[in-house]
Amino acid sequence: MNKQNLWSLRLGFSGKEASMIKKDFSLFLKNSFESNVDSALPELLNDSPKTIADLKARRLFLKEADMVEKKKYNTQENKTNIDLKVWWLEKMQKETFPLREKMTCFWHNHYVSTFQKVKVNYWIYQHNQLLRENAFGNFRELTKQVLKTNAMVRYLDNTDNKKGKINENLSRELLELFTLGVGNYTEEDIKNGGKALAGLGNGDEKAVYRPKFEEEETITYLGKTGNFKSDDLVDIIFEQKNIPYFITRKILKWFIYDNPKEELVTYYGNYFKEQDFEIKPLLYKIFTEEYKKENAGSKIKDPLVFVFQMIDELHITEAKMEMVAFFLKYQGMDLFNQLNVKGWDGGNSWLTSQILLQRNNAADMFCKGRTLNKKGLLNEEGKSDPELEKINISLDWNKGNNEQIIDELKNRLLCTTEENLQKDFENILKYDFNPNDPGAENAVLRLFNAMAKTPEFQLI
Amino acid sequence: MNRRNFLSLTGTFTGGMFLLPDFLHAFGSSSNSLVIGEQCLVFIQLNGGNDGLNTFVPFDNPMYYEFRPKIALSKDDVIGKNQGMAFHPALKNFADMQQNGDLSVIQNVGYPEPNRSHFRSQEIWQTASASKEYKSEGWLGRYLDFQCHNHQPTAGINIDTIDNLALKGLEPNSITVKDPNRFKVKKENSSVKLSENPQLDFVRKIASSTMEGSEVIQKALAKSTAENTYPKTELGKNLEWIGRLIKGNLNSKVYYSSLGGFDTHDNQLSIHNNKLTDLNDAVFAFYKDMKEAALLQNVTLVVFSEFGRRAKDNGRGTDHGTAAPMFIIGGQNKGKIIGNNPNLADLDNGDLKHEIDFRSVYASLLKDKLTFDYSKIGIKTKPISGLF
Hints:
- The structure holds two protein chains of two kinds.
- Chain A has 24 helices and four strands.
- Chain A has helices at residues 3-11, 18-23, 25-33, 52-64, 67-94, 99-108, 115-118, 121-133, 139-147, 150-155, 169-178, 187-197, 230-237, 243-255, 262-274, 279-291, 303-313, 321-330, 353-367, 374-378, 386-389, 402-413, 419-428, 440-452, and strands at 200-201, 208-209, 219-221, 224-226.
- The model of chain A has no long low-confidence stretch (mean pLDDT 93).
- Chain B is an alpha/beta fold.
- Chain B has one domain (46-377): Alkaline Phosphatase, subunit A (3-Layer(aba) Sandwich), CATH 3.40.720.
- Chain B is 34% helix and 14% strand.
- Chain B contains eleven helices and twelve strands.
- In chain B, the strands form two sheets. In chain B, strands 1, 5, 6, 7, 8, 9, 10, 11 and 12 form a nine-stranded mixed β-sheet that branches.
- The chains are: A mainly alpha, B alpha/beta.
- Chains A and B meet through helix 11 and helix 19 of A and helix 6, strand 7 and helix 8 of B.
């Protein structure tokens, strides 16, 4: 595979940025880091409750409402959540420099907070927007801010964490999943962290401490003693010697290697600490140094990359993002709705036999010029209306002989190819292939379709 | 060619079993029973840490009520009272199954140096490792690696949205299916080529399981019919599929499914009641299905969770704890309550001390049900006695 295509898939969601990357990789990264953040509240949230007063009113309304009204209301909020997914997917697809969205998605899967549990779309949006604004910021400061989002305190039950009845959930995940990782703290630290977080509950724009629920006890946390609050906990955590490695390993996994070597983790982790946990220099160093290496095929594609790559390759302009969201859900990558606080595991976990089968079905549908639909994806029986599902597709390829065309597509799509596969491809596009033949377009599409269903296509 | 044909052909050609290599011999010697009477294990993993004390309740112990002022279950509500213990009211059919002598309860199951993280504790249960030991293959995956030397994609069936570490072995001997009926794919040439890239090999093997697995599954499904006695829940459907595959003679050794939502930090009474109702209804439908098909003696259902919960409540819920009961249904278990009642007077940091190591239950399942030497997959604890 061409380097620029490989890295376009890794740093974005499709091959769309390949030419910019080829021209000047360093400039591409700098432009990506400087990309703007749209801070306007999406219109879809206009009618959703936002303040504590709004939510109180909603509670009262639902208490009084009959079944029909209740159902209508819940359907509306669920619909708003789907709109929010669509809003994000469109950003991912359309941004000129999608690295910010890729990184937002990384943080989304790091500081997990799901709509299913939080149930307030505005809070989910705020949390997501915080991750976007700080995508390339400072890991320590971002952690502090995440702890103070309404979404997180609700998601990890800190709203129930009160003086005298400590709930350890947020305190535990702060150490286990957000920062240090297992083996770097004790159960005692979790208990004490829980006390420091007691009383941190929902507020209007962000989470706030409520004095009457706070523990004012002196605690010992990771060896330090004092009367601590959430920011203090984070500062103490970031003084620990193992702090840089857990997140560095996760970043390497997200972008490049399913199984990163420990020496790479240590090497980049140490640099991250030197940079006082600034994310931008870390990413710049990782990307520019790893770009020089031969490491294609070290990672299994996530479903987002799979689907956006198909859409981009086939120039599908009518792709419905609702359908993409649905596809992601069935592929095990439902946005705003991870199965648990650990997030998507990634790597080999992306693929099961059935998920691969579904990707192959999706590739077939796209290549037939049909939209993704439930029936096709789930292999359901029943009639379909090919006319309604029809979409326009076209593939870029340069006229040449069969081998040249095969090479061109391989360079864009496949991390490696071995002999047998090459034979299969030359069976589809035979030596006497005539690129000017009226059926040429379809034949190349068949080749593309076959490539998209090879195991090699699942790797970047 | 499927394995059974392969074995019988080999047998025919050699005229005797002695020429078979060891591993085939081990598998082939039981091939008579492959058709009828083959034992299988069905696991239901309760995700999130099921509260043992409110599942199998020490209703006679005043400390239980002292520790749980807000969430203790009343003496008058619990059912199937037996030696000071009784079931949560939602588990009414568990009490029936025990009455019938088909359900054993193993009390205070856990492991030394308990870990209270969901992921780590699940990992420990799924890999049968010690608390500080890390294994990348699951215990059932390792067992299947021993049993089937070339990969056999349907030796283990996981009905779930994601793969389960317990079944993960070096070879893909198991498949994950969300809904077996959707499993239709054209047969294609599927010889697996190995490369130097482990990620690529992984995808290739999955791709080949997709094709090999679907055919046998479809055959098994064609041989059995759907039951409409199962509840229309996720778990109900999963167990219905498992029932169909067993009845269709798929001959998988291990079936696996899970039920989430047991992480009851808050609002425990109603959440737990719903979840246990879910469990009760699905399990009982499966039990009846197997009983009616005269297969219950061959099918052992195991219900467990990664840990129990703290003895004291935290208000309206409970935090992560340690030891908890396990339930074994069918497979001709003795229908006993094994182990002492939970000792609330002797806690470790507020948590129950485990008395039975979960690996000794695994050892018993492997030895008594699958005639397998558990030490081969690194289990060192002795099987518990009195289960089968």
